[in-house]
Each structure stands twice: as structure tokens, then as C-alpha cells.
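HUMAN: Quick job: go over this next protein and say how the chain folds.
***
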Amino acid sequence: MVVRDLRHSSAERQLAARRRTIRRARRGPDAGCGLFMTLVPGTDRIDSERLLLRRITRDDYDFFARLHAMPEVVRYIMNGQPRSAEESRVWVERVAMYERVNLGLLAVVRKSDGRLIGRCGLSELVVDANAAPGTIPRGWFQRAQAPAGTQLLDTPDLGYTFDPASWGHGYATEAARCVFDYARANLGWRRIVSVIHPDNVRSLRVAERSGLRRDGQVEIMAQVMEQYVWPIREDTT
């Protein structure tokens, strides 16, 4: 009994230390950049059965420039418009500067052939905590975009985007579950959501297969999105 108590205490201390490190990183000079940390400091990758999720690097530019230029890929994300090559370059540079910003999205690599097939991870999402009853609350993917004085609720968004050539094989479901399991065990979030365009049938299916619970809607960038909550148990937070 004493040994069990000591182990439990040690595990709690380790989790508390990780949370303090993450909080310090979020308060860094670029804390308002719109990215949340998906991996704790010192961790470079996480794995699932078929996938490796690692930090994005500048060498990934060609893949993401091609991915972001596909209308069928971006239809339900960002502003629904393909990104230019320069916009993708800026995006890759931004998320690759892990020394300065909190890591959000991870590159998803298929283990069987080492091919980069998509991205998945946590991004900053804040929601108006005082929305009037019966109204759809507003949300912002960057805290700095919210009107001054708005009381905000932190609800990190777990998102995923994949190359159409890899669709239909369950990779999005597997990657999202991998990120969620890691975040639940290591990051201490009490609430993680996925906000999904109501017409994005593929992402809605991922949510259903992952056991997410629909929790109303949220308005982001003038679009009403479905909000799904990942099943975090109280005893794990």
C-alpha cells in the first residue's frame, strides 16, 4: 500500500511539472500566435500503429504547398480558399519555429513507406464564455482576435487535414485518436473539441467513429460550425 501511494504521488508530481512547463511555454513572447503545444518539451514524435506524428520542418514545404492549394482539401478549413505558394511558405516557417512558438500541428507520416500524408494536432480556440442563452457563441482561433474585454473559455481544437490520396483508410481517425490520447495523458486539458463544418461529411464521420459528443455550435469567421467534445474523464484531468 505504501509503495502504491508513493508511485501515485510521483506520477502526480511528474504531471504537475509537465503542466508548469507547458504553462510557461504558453506565456512566452509568441503566446498569442494561435498555436497550442501538442508535444511536451523534449518530445519530438508520437506513434500509433500505422502512423508517426512528428514536428513539421521546412523540408515539408513542398508537401504542404501542394496540400493547401487543393480546393477539395481546404473547402471546409481556413477561409475555404486555396493558399498561394508564398502563403504556405509563411505557414511552414511559422509552425517550424518550435523554439519560439508553441507547437500546434504535427506532420503525419505513414510508417509503411515513410510518406508524409497530412497534419494533425491541437490549435488554439477560444470561445465567448458569456454568450446569451439561446444564441450561438462566437469563437476565435487566436485569442488576440477576440474583442477586448470578452471573457474567454480555452477549448483547444483538435484538427486534421490529409492528402486526398490517403483518404478512406482511417488515417485521420487514427491520428486524431493518437493526439487525443497523448494530450489527455500529458497535457492536462479539461476540455478538447473538434469544430467541424456541417457539410464536411468526412470529418463528421471521424468524430462519430472516435466517440465524440456533439455539443452545440460555435460561430467562427462568420461560419457556424458544429462543435464536438472529446471524451475526457474527470478522473484523468
